[in-house]
Design goal:
This protein has 4 helices and 2 strands. It is mainly alpha-helical. The protein binds zinc ion. The site of zinc ion (ZN) has 8 residues, from helix 4.
Length: about 100
């Protein structure tokens, strides 16, 4: 993603609608991590298909799954080719 897109997506993660979607995602999953065999409590809402700055992929709940923080970090780091390893804001990578 370009720096411009990263800045845009960072703003999305601060919007009230995102917090509402994330909470709904975690509650629907009963705070269980979606990774098979993982028993950690889900704290993060992951984008099943990486949104890459696409608002509709970012916001639609059918593209969301609950993951624990470590599974989410691993997935994001893999998908973004290390991008997710950069400094995070409020524990959220911007890619996942
Ligand atoms: Zn997990």
């Amino acid at each position: 993603m370009s720096d411009e897109t990263v800045a845009k997506v960072r703003r999305w993660y601060r919007q009230r609608i995102w917090f509402a979607r994330r909470d709904a995602c975690l509650k629907a999953a009963l705070y269980r991590c979606a990774t098979p065999g993982c028993l950690e409590r889900a704290t993060d809402c992951d984008h099943i298909r990486p949104h890459r700055g696409d608002w509709s992929l970012f916001i639609k709940s059918s593209n969301h799954q609950a993951l624990c923080h470590s599974c989410h970090s691993r997935k994001t780091a893999r998908e973004d080719g290390g991008f997710g390893n950069r400094r995070r804001e409020a524990g959220q990578g911007v890619g996942g």
